[in-house]
Each structure stands twice: as C-alpha cells, then as structure tokens.
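Review form for a predicted model. The reviewer records the input and the model, then writes brief findings.
Reviewer: anonymous (R2)
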Amino acid sequence: MGLAGLGALSMAGGGLLTACGDAKPSGGPGTTTQDQLQKLLPAYAPNELVKADIPSVTGANGFFSNPAFLKYPASPVTTTSGVPGKGGTYTTMTPLWGAIPSASGNAYYAAVNKAIGATLKLQPADGNNYDKVLPTLFAGDKLPDWVQVPSWNMGNLGFADAVNKFADLGPYLSGDAIKAYPNLAAIPTSAWQCCIWNGKLFGLPVYYSGATIAGTIFHRKDILAKEGINPDDIKTPDDLAELGKQLTSAAAGRWAFDDVFDATGQIFKFPVDPNRWVIDESGKIIHRYETPGILAALEWYQAQAKAGHVHPDALADKNQEAKQRFWSGKVAITGDGPGAWKGDDAKSGKAANPSYERQAFKLLSTDGKPQIWMNPSAGMYSFLNAKLSADQIKECLSIANYLAAPYGSAEYLTVNFGVEGTDYTMVDGNPVLTERGSKEVATTYQFLITPISPTTVIAGQTQVVKDYAAWEADMVKYAAKPAFYGMNVTEPAQYANINQPMVDLIKDIRYGRKPVSAYADGLKTWKAQGGEQLRAFYEDIRSKYGTGQ
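Model under review:
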C-alpha cells in the first residue's frame, strides 16, 4: 500500500508514467502541468474535532508522524450532520486480503448502509487475484459504480486512457468546493496529489500517511538489556556488527541477526525497491544496483553470515518463519516493515516469551547523518463511474465524507466496527470485535476512502503505541524524498524481467553462496540487457517532468 502516483503519460515502448504533478508542461497524453495541479488540488482544512492523545509531529521535507490514540474517546464526536445518502443504490468492488464475509444477514453491512442512507452493494474480490479481475471489467466496460484500483494494478490497464472511464471529481472537490465535505477537506494535499491524471482529479485516496517507509531494523530490547546493551549507543554499521559477536550464542540457540539486508538500505543509502533510481553527487541518474551503498551492504551482510551471526534459516531464505524466530528469541535483531510493530505482535511475542519487547533502533548511518527515504503518501485509490449523474456523484461524495470521518468519531466506529454489542464491545476503552463481528466485519467500505491512518492500541498493548509514536516522531526528522518521488513509473514492457537475475545474485551474495566479486559481472550484464536503455528512459522523464524532489 505504500506505492503512489499521479498524472499519467503513455511512453514509447508501452510504458506508463504516473507523475507527481510537478511536471513541466507537455502535450503528451496523461500529463498534468504545475499550473493545472494548483487549480485541481482541493483546499486543505484540518479536522480539529478529535484530539489525538499523542499529536502528529512535523518532520523534515513536509513529512509528519501519524496521530496516536491510547483509548477511543469516551464520548465520540459526530463530524457529519444528517444522513449523507438520499436512498441511492450503488455497486462497489474492492480487493480483500482475507475471508470474504457473507452479505446475507450481515449486521455490519446493514448498520453502515443504514447510517449512510444508501445501499452500497459490496462486492469484495480476492486481493491476490485482483490484477486478473480488473482488466476484464475495463475491457468489457462493466465497471461498477464505485471501484478501488491500487497503483500496482494500473500497469496492465493502460491507465492513462482507462482512467477516462471514471468521473472527473474536480468540479466537486477542487479548491474551496471541497469545503462542502469537511472530512474530505481534512485529507492532506500530498494524498490528493496522488489522485490526478490527465489534468483532472479522478481518485479518492485510501490508506494514506504522512510518513510511509519501506522498513527498519528492530531489536529485542529485553535481550539487549540482559546483555547490558543500550540500543541508543548503536549508531553505525560497525556498532551493529559488534552486536553480532555479543548476541550470537550457539549454546543458547540464539543468533544476532535474521535477514536484515533490505533494512540496511537506510544505513548504506541504497533504495529497497528494485525499480528505484538515485541521483548521485555528480547529478547522474544511477540505479539502485549501481549505488556504492548496496555493494557496501553486501560486504557487511556477507561478513555477518560467514561469521555465523545470521540464523541458518534466514540464510536458507525461510522468511515465512522470521516472526516466529524473533518472538521466540532465536534471533535478537530483524528487519521488517513498520506494520510489524503493533499490539498483536506484542501479544504473539509475549505468548512465546513473557519478557518479549520489540523496539526499533534509531536511524543508523555510516557518516553520522541519518536519512530515510519516504514512500509516497498514498498508493490506493477509488473511483466513481463516469456514467453516474451529477446528483449521484454528489451523493457518493457525501457518503465518502461520512466514510472518511476521523478516528475518534462516532462515524468511524460504525464504519470500522459496526454495531456495539453485536459486532464489537469496548474493552479497556477500545473497540474489540465480537465473535460475530470477526466474521462479518471486513475491510470493504475502507477501500473506498479512509481518514488518515492513526496509530492505535491493539490487543490492549498501550505501551506499544507510545513507543512507536515516539520512534516515528524521531524518524521523521530525517525524512527525505528519493529521486522521482511520487512518480510511480511503469517501465516499458521489454524491460520487465531484467531485474530478476540481479535479485537472485544479491541473495546468493548476501547469503554467502557467491563471492562479492561476482557482483561486478552481474551488474555489467544487467546494464547490457536493458539497464542503460532504462537510464535513458529516466533521463527523458527527468528532462520533461523533473525528479519529484
């Protein structure tokens, strides 16, 4: 969900570029100029009705931490007036990663539809096969009234043209027009930027954030404490390597590291995404594979592997078992996404070991200058069918305004938890699904639009929220925009598979199966098989649209 893009340009060779709206003027299909962008963006009006227990903190380059809540407000405020719908009926389709609940007799669906004053006929589809469902709907012109299209499913849709099947929302939301929908006006500008194609505002953003990262390095604070290690003293890769010696104990069945290679990208300053490019100090566009940092990271990680500091199963690429290794204490340090640091993780970890405590290291660096590249604010969007009338579009936007009510509101409880006593109960001040609710409540309405993602208590683990919020507030101080930030580029189809040999080679090197010296030949082959052509492709993008930084 961390991908995002805005604007679209059909490129020679069949590729698709979605750009951040800061592009230079161009006459190509799908482009959005800087002047157009300023006219299209909705006015921003933060919602002041709900106060977070731990407020958002502004970091560098416009990024900010998410608001955090320790308990759901005892008296939730109402952020909308009246019933938003006018009795209309609309078909929807959204992806769902999980069991699809039955619509028959579903108290949750009935409660939300009653609250919005309309009938949304929900049609969740298997998220893992969503990319196969969408092309058929587009080709057959059988799109539902309201549909979710993730950015990573747009490449095979010819989206620069396909997006024209959706309603232009600019006349209803651009500028001050959005003030008719206060909860939509509270959506940050960076998220709305991700919803613009062809000089028009088409999308509604879903699951956006002020600071989205690929991952970071976690440690078992309880284990480090037993060894007398202060995690705040770990500031460089050499410090981290020293922990390899201190924390690995064959007798105790414990290794220092799981597979932390990707997470070391923030230390050695190379992108995690295989499709990411970097502007080097000379101004040249170089690929992730060409950065000095990735070579240094391979040398560092292979040294840990050869020294026996990496768990054997991690070296065997058994990533599905990584969380269990961390929970049980078989490894003390692991790499993972920020979503791993939640209350349910603490619950699972404490079940394996009562002293379990996950924490993240403060950002490490090689030069005393920490930096972490951000992902775009939003990467999922919903769209309204262009066949809807103006009155129907207004009704759907009023419904969207209800669905986007912030965490802490009465509406949020209904949209996310259903009916109290039936679908959920309040436990220690927070909503918890009942047995019936766990079967009926699924992520469906939320894939149409959401408020900004908050950090909340899960499984009663209040301290986890405090710790994560404090870490994130520190992390955003070092937030930076990578090259082509907010420009989700789908490369020409003929280069779709050139990265796989490098992906495999990097695994072989970091796991110690091949020497670091093998990297040079692999890189040479990658360049010859399309890497240099791709560089020219990105140079053309930079010349026309900039780098998004």
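Findings: Residues 1-31 have pLDDT under 50 and may be disordered.
Further findings: The chain is about 35% helix and 15% strand.
Recommendation: see findings above.
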